[in-house]
Amino acid sequence: MGRGRVQLKRIENKINRQVTFSKRRAGLLKKAQEISVLCDAEVSLIVFSHKGKLFEYTSESCMEKVLERYERYSYAERQLIAPDSHVNAQPNWSMEYSRLKAKIELLERNQRHYLGEDLEPMSLKDLQNLEQQLETALKHIRSRKNQLMYESLNHLQRKEKEIQEENSMLTKQIKERENILRTQQTQCEQLNRNHDVPPPQPQPFQHPHPYMISHQTSHFLNMGGMYQGEDQTAMRRNNLDLTLEPIYNYLGCYAA
To answer: Model's pTM, two decimal places?
Structure first.
């Protein structure tokens, strides 16, 4: 006797319901992957548990691309089958809200995955896709970092060259200023030497020979004519004795 058909209804037991969900979810994901591989089809699967936890599978590298493609297709199809233009003009706010909400949830989920969180429901292929995305992002980050470092290095090198040129110019100006000051100082010293020439030194006083003094004195006395008589005669005799004495000494020196 064959197995009876299972009636599809909500499982009341909470534990049994969770076990069944886990088994059926794993089987559903497996079937989606098989269809994608065997039939070369683009398959995407989104499942939310009764607690709101998201489980998904996509044959593409990113679920967002699949959702965007689905939105474009759905919008084009609605445009074709719309009964009148008035209906087309009225936006479907309920659908727009659902679309934006799903997109926000998807972005939040991707953010958690990029942070290494909530990885348990992901399959091996999903983890490989996530790893590839992170490696690609890491390459872009490193490339941008290297570019900024290279630009910063070039800026520092240009700054260093400008500082060296400025330093060389200042050094040259300082040397020129020192040469000017040295030249001015030399000129000032030369002018000071020209103005400070000492006057001629006075010659030491040479006493005239006693004979000349006596002779001059006698001559002056004779010219005056003021002394007469014995006083004048005695003075002449005394002067003559004083005058002749050095002469005798002088002659005696030669005679010897």
So the answer is: 0.37
